[in-house]
């Protein structure tokens, strides 16, 4: 697999694109997911044996971030159980110092992309720990901790993401070595991964239909159904799916959200203090 950034990840099986397009594209998807899962499992073991600065340049960027976040989730949980979050914060600062020293060196383009993305993620991880130290958090079930996006490699040999009481299976879809958005307090508050922007520009009649469709998907998720009926058709349910919307209330020509859409949504308000002006995430690598 080749990403738009030039990263190459060898597939775990050989594939031959013959026969129906629909069939071999499904095979490509299957092998892609198998490849990412296999790489992730191997990298989780390698992390324990390798020097961290070597590890981040050895594996694909997506794998590096998933593995580092998995170990971070486990280490913070252990620190909370042992009442040693302040001590773990010092270790986290040492890890960031190591990445900062590494990013100053001559690196291949792909390695630098991996480091830039990892630094953005781990600066946010540091901020989370600093907040917990400041708030004297010492319980692994405290909201300040369980509200964070956490990664866990469970006994069934699969990766899961958790936030509060929700758990999503990791999709193992190859994302490439993409840059990361800087995580602000608003990101934490909304929990958004992807958004339907300017949602209230849609006509009220269409909004009501969309709300019913979203409710159908959410009900199937609550039931943990393998398949469900959507618009009269039985389809496979992806438990990792989620819906987020944005809107500017009070503008002329905008539609008020119908009640059946409001009741299945939670609210996060963007204020002026949530914005980051003239901010470059690459500056995070500069002391």
UniProtKB/TrEMBL annotation:
Query: In its UniProt entry, what is this protein called?
Result: Dynein heavy chain 1, axonemal
Look up the domain of life of the source.
Eukaryota
Q: InterPro entries, per this entry? A: AAA_6 (IPR035699), DHC (IPR026983), P-loop_NTPase (IPR027417)
Q: Which Pfam families match?
A: AAA_6
Q: Which GO terms describe its molecular function?
A: ATP binding; dynein intermediate chain binding; dynein light intermediate chain binding
Q: Which residues form the Dynein heavy chain hydrolytic ATP-binding dynein motor region domain?
A: 190-264
PANTHER family tied to this protein: DYNEIN AXONEMAL HEAVY CHAIN 1, DYNEIN HEAVY CHAIN 6, AXONEMAL-LIKE-RELATED
């Amino acid at each position: 697999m080749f990403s738009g950034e030039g990263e190459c990840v060898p597939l775990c099986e050989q594939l031959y694109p013959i026969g129906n397009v629909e069939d071999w594209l499904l095979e490509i998807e299957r092998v892609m997911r198998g490849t990412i899962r296999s790489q992730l499992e191997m990298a989780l073991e390698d992390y324990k044996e390798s020097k961290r600065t070597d590890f981040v340049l050895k594996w694909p960027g997506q794998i590096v971030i998933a593995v580092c976040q998995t170990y971070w989730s486990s280490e913070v949980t252990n620190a909370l159980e042992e009442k040693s979050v302040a001590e773990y914060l010092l270790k986290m600062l040492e890890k960031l110092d190591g990445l900062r020293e590494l990013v100053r060196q001559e690196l291949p383009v792909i390695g630098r992309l991996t480091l830039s993305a990892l630094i953005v993620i781990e600066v946010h991880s540091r901020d989370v720990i600093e907040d917990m130290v400041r708030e004297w958090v010492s319980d692994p079930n405290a909201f300040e901790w369980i509200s964070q996006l956490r990664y866990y490699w469970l006994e069934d040999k699969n990766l899961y993401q958790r936030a509060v009481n929700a758990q999503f299976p990791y999709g193992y879809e190859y994302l490439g070595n993409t840059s990361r958005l800087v995580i602000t307090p608003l990101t934490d508050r909304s929990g958004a991964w992807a958004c339907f922007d300017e949602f209230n520009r849609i006509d009220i009649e269409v909004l009501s239909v969309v709300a019913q469709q979203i409710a159908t998907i959410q009900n199937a998720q609550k039931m943990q159904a393998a398949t469900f009926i959507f618009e009269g058709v039985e389809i496979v349910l992806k438990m990792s799916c989620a819906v987020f919307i944005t809107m500017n209330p009070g503008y002329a020509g905008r539609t008020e959200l119908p009640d059946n859409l409001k009741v299945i949504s939670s609210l996060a308000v963007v204020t002026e203090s949530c914005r980051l002006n003239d901010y470059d995430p690459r500056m995070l690598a500069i002391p």
